[in-house]
Amino acid sequence: MSQPTKRATAVESDITVGRVLRSPALLTRECLAGIITALALIPEVISFSVIAGVDPKVSLVASVVLCLTLSILGGRPAMVTAAAGSVALVIGPMVHAHGVEYILPAVIMGGVIQIIFGLAGLSRMMRYIPRSVMIGFVNALGILIFFAQVPHVWGQSTLVWALFAVTLAIVLLLPKVLKSVPSPLVAIVVVTAVALLLGYRVPNVGDEGPMTAGLPGFTTLLVPINLHTLQIIWPTALSIAFVGLMESLLTAKLVDDITDTPSGKRRESWALGVGNILAGFYGGIAGCAMIGQTIVNVELGKARTRVSTIAAGIVLLLLVTGLSQIMAQIPMVVLAGIMMVVAVKTVNWHSLQPATLKRMPWSETLVMVLTVAVTVWTGNLAIGVLIGVILAMMLFARRIAHVIHAERQLSDDGQQVNYTVRGPLFFGSSNDLFEHFNYGHDPKTVTIDLTHAQIWDASSVAALDAIEYRYQRHGAKVTFIGLDNRSSDFRERLSGNLG
Questions:
Q1: Can you give the pTM of this predicted structure?
Q2: What are the backbone angles phi and psi of residue 452, rounded to the nearest 5°?
């Protein structure tokens, strides 16, 4: 995982909403973190709206709905949820092919799937994502965040580069002398003030999309609910559901590690579904956890409770409505500089050190590298994680397939032989087990002791049947002993019925 600059202390891990509301210092810290998080959301949300093919105002309003809903219902305090790029990537093709009117039914269907997923407790499946995939996910995310900001700096004027240098200096150096105010917030205020007071014209938030004041109305359903609509929306709805769940649950796990506090993954799953349905009706686009902005909130802002994300949602709402013209004046370079610092902090640099790579098994390194490569290549975190998990499963199956052993012991009179099998019996090791016996030279009485082995699937039962049949062809009788009750019942139910 990303190595935080300062690990949360035991005292910090006990911070609650009640304690924050009773402490002016903590309340100030949480609110300031929320303000900087809201500002950090703006450029990415606007950029993602272009990918999804919707009005930037729609994505910003949806982000307000998501942020406030998950602040109240979500299972991971201080985690930021908004209209995300990974979800925009899966919505975009449908919008370009069929139109924006299909977003609402697709989002509603995706939200319902997420609610069912959460209520069914399927979030426990996250435990099957290996650490190497998690590290690859984090490293790839850092790379994507960093290079997404590069166009706002590279190829720009000397003035933009100067403001970029000022931004980095404030964000990196100010915390050494002032810890009470988030340095990114100071950077935004200072750089914006400099640009306005001196009359400098640099690319700003207003250039990314229209920043008209006011709120849109409720989204109305513009397509009939029939089989034709279902055929169009179901692939996108499934992608919205599972891409959103994967990114949110992975981000929740990351925040758990940073803050040394647990989260309710099941609650987060169904709450995300509720948030997306509400955002669909009032905003029109789905979302999920925003890991970059979450790092801004919990790392740079030191936020630990729901107060920070409620503040972020309220500030974003104010910016979208009454303060839209002020928001439009913020130079893009200052937001890009902040997100670049976040990207660098997000990468797990320890995992990339030569000493770490030398100690790490090659298979773990391969999984991490492939996860990073696929994620960066596709720009989709969910695809990268999925490929990484599949490779990790294949390598794990390959590794444990060869740990099966069968020790042969011939009796003193040479009339019987005993084999002691050790290791897990499953589809990967079954074929390997079959080759451990000396069929043509063993005596007529064969005992196979499975005390130190367990049967895990039908492939293992089929392998034991094949071993017994092979011995029968040589006129030998095989007796299996030592199976535990579960394995014995499993074998009795399937043996001889597998064809």
A1: 0.70
A2: -100, 25
